Amino acid sequence: MSSWHRKRIAAPISDKACPWWRIFPLSRGDATFEAMDRALIFDLERRLDHYERVGLAHLPTPLEPLKRLTAHLGGPRLWVKREDCTGIGFGGNKLRKLDFVLREALDAGADTLVSGGVVQSNSQRQVAAAAAKLGLDCHLAVYHGRLAPPGPAYETSGNALLNRLFGAQLHHVPWTGNRNQAIRALAEELSSDGRRPYVVPYGVSNALGAAGYATAAAEIANQSAALGIEPRAIVHGSGSAGTQAGLVLGASIAMPEVGIVGIDIDAEPERVHADVLRYGSAAADLLGVPFPTDRVEVVAGHAGPAYGVPHAATIEAIKLAGRLEALALDPVYSAKGLAGLIALVRQNRWTTEDDIVFVHTGGAPALFAYAEALDP
Ligand SMILES: Cc1ncc(COP(=O)(O)O)c(C=O)c1O
């Protein structure tokens, strides 16, 4: 039995019909512990059930082993939570947040979604996709100047192309450092024109979005229990902070032993840390629990020279994920997240007996916008 397999409790039905991790349901063999796990997960799900969702995201997303990357690095067993597989409009982590946030938009009678981000923002592309699916208009404040475009495809390909395909109306504005100001100004303009706009904040990060992302922790807890693993840590790229806030909150309820490690991809670790606390505390209020401020870990040093600029470690992560695991990471977020994880593995933060979950938060369309910079 390989070290990936703890304890087999059911005979395989057919080696060919299913992947190995479905053929071998695994168990820690401790019924009391499992019942406790289930009670914690149920508590989280019950708290989340107070909030209705639109149901756009394809859930649950798979939790899969990264056997070849694990062997290559020689460290802990690595798993990937496929948040890039949330379905509509090329998927990504924002759809899970949007499921909660857009319920509020529909209930408020909105006819237009207003959001924004940089030219290659995955967030605004997912807002545009959601608007198309829900039959709402979509207006996006597209920020220019936060980074120097890596090549001509940056302005037109990838997410920029998809925004147009999904029918969003683009408003080009300069980046000022204030993430939500131009979005709010656009909403006011639309409102005075008689529209009923609903503001989706930058990165879909607010209290409700963060609470929505706690559903990912519930899924990982359920899937880990089914697999018979107890992850030591969940690692992911952290930017506008709603993803990490939701994971920390959800894990504090359903997986109290698991550490959440956010890799700063914005080159602003203090700001990211402060925003995780801000959105996490507000989301915790929604779920009626305290927010564990001491469990917020934001790791600096893997963002490269600046936001949106891939460096050698980003490109190494993209190539390793592609060649060893057929995963398409993006050069702005998910590859920097994996670069951070690879660095922590190489620093021997975990042992070969640990299970570590990497969250693939999506973003692959941006690969095409960065083609010249990547040269795979
Ligand atoms: C692909 C991808 N990964 C990670 C993140 C970071 O998530 P958050 O902004 O919730 O921290 C983003 C945000 O835009 C993203 O697009």
Number of strands: 10
Low-confidence spans: 5-28
Total domains: 2
Looking at the overall shape, the CATH architecture of the largest domain is 3-Layer(aba) Sandwich
**Which outline best applies?**
globular
Secondary-structure class: alpha/beta
Distance between the termini: 36 Å
Percent of residues in helices: 40-55%
Series of H and E elements? HHEHEHEHEHHEHEHEHEHEHHEHH
Tell me which ligands are bound. pyridoxal-5'-phosphate
The fraction of residues in strands falls at 5-15%
Write down the CATH topology of the largest domain: Rossmann fold
Order of strands, widest sheet: 1-2-10-7-8-9
Mean pLDDT: 92
Helix tally equals: 15
CATH class of the largest domain: Alpha Beta
Q: Biggest β-sheet, characterized?
A: 6 strands, mixed
Return Rg in Å: 20 Å
Describe the structure.
The chain is of the alpha/beta class. The protein has two domains: 20-90 and 207-374, Rossmann fold; 94-204, Rossmann fold (3-Layer(aba) Sandwich), CATH 3.40.50.1100. Helices cover 45% and strands 14% of the residues. The strands form two sheets. A six-stranded mixed β-sheet has the order 1-2-10-7-8-9, sandwiched between helices. A four-stranded parallel β-sheet has the order 5-4-3-6. The longest helix has 21 residues, at 207-227. The protein is globular, with a radius of gyration of 20 Å. It starts with 19 loop residues before the first helix and ends with a helix. Bound molecules: pyridoxal-5'-phosphate. Residues 92-93, 122-123, 203, 205, 237-244, 330, 333-334, 361-363 line the site of pyridoxal-5'-phosphate (PLP).
